[in-house]
Structures are given as structure tokens and as C-alpha cells.
Amino acid sequence: MNIVSGRIRLGLSAAAAAGAFLLAFVPVTAAHAASTIHFKATVSDSFTDTSCGFPITVNFQGNGVFTWFFDAQGNFQRQITEWNAVVADSANGITLTETDHWVEFTNSDMDVYKMTGLPIHIHDGGVVIRDAGYVLFNPDGSVAVIHGPHPQFEGDLGALCAAFS
Q1: What is the percent of the chain where pLDDT is above 70?
Q2: Which of 72, 123, 127, 163 could form a disulfide with 34 if both were Cys (CB 3.0 to 4.6 A apart)?
Q3: pTM score > 0.85 for this model?
Q4: What is the 3-state secondary structure (H, E, C) of the chain?
Q5: 132 and 118 in contact (C-beta within 8 Å)?
Q6: What are the tens digits of pLDDT across the range 60-79?
């Protein structure tokens, strides 16, 4: 798994888990019709990225602010989640700091997903790699539209791999 797909999967997993929890304990009734629900969640995880040909340990802590929108009948319509994350990427005795901020948008079927912001910002006294801008995903997970620099997402790992050498 690479770092970008790990974060995207982590964000969607956190959203689904938080959603299941919230729906179990906060029934949506007519009193909640055409309303929004706001809540926060913190997600911590770690995984190993092998995109550079050697293991990079990624320790992630993200704080999400979720906003759920409901129609007049109380049916869930869409979600916006704002993430702030602090990440430690470690390999070959070197640890790089990462501070990320991005917003995810999903529809009620969770089949339209877009992301905007700064989902990857790895630095070590200067920018090592930075993905920023907008990405719209198709329901199958492929990219429909991409704007802005996304070197890591698009597979340009040269600067990242070199920073661990």
C-alpha cells in the first residue's frame, strides 16, 4: 500500500466507522429532517509503505470534523470531513515529519468522492514532497479529475525516496 492510498482508505474507514456508530446511537427522525449533524473523531494508525523499494513506517494521527447533511425526510445525503493529520514517516534511520490538511466530500451512496487541500506535505527543514489541490474519484476508485501538484499520488516518488537515503 502506498502512503496516499493508505490515507484515503484510512479516511474512508474512519468515516464509515464513525457513521455506523453515530447512526446506531442517534436515530434520524422527522425532528432531524433537513438538518446537519456535526461530530469529531480522532484516528490513529500505522502501516508500512513499500513504494520506494524499502519499508517506510508511517505513523498517522488524524483529527476529523464530520458534517452530515440530511434531506427533509431525514435521509442521509452527503458528508464533508475536514482532516488535520500529523504523521511520522520513518525509514533507514531517518524520520520525516508530515503535516496534512484536507477536506473529503462523499455522497449518500459513498460512490462519489473528492478530496481537496494538502493531503501530503512531508518536510524536513524544507519541503520534501507536497501533494495539493483537487482530486475527484470515480466510483471504482480511479481518478476522474486531478488539479494541482500531486507527485506522490501520481507515482513520482523520487524526492521522497531520496530523502530516506
Answers
A1: 79
A2: 72
A3: no
A4: CCHHHHHHHHHHHHHHHHHHHHHHHCCCCHHHCCCEEEEEEEEEEEEEECCCCCCEEEEEEEEEEEEEEECCCCCEEEEEEEEEEEEEEEECCEEEEEEEEEEEEEECCCCCEEEEEEEEEEECCCEEEEEEEEEEECCCCCEEEEECCCCCCCCCCHHHHHHCC
A5: yes
A6: 999 999 999 999 888 899 99
Sequence-distant (≥ 6) Cβ neighbours of residue 146 within 8 angstroms: 133, 134, 135, 136, 153, 154
Could you tell me if residue 34 is left (phi over 0), alpha (psi between -120 and 50 degrees) or otherwise beta? left
pLDDT of 109 = 81
For residue 105, the enclosing domain spans 3-163
**Total domains in the fold of the chain:** 1
- Phi, psi for residue 119 in degrees, rounded to 5: -75, -20
pLDDT in tens, 133-162: 999 988 888 889 999 998 888 889 999 999
Report yes or no: 124 and 103 within 8 Å, Cβ to Cβ.
Answer: no
| Cell numbers standing for residue 19 | 457513521
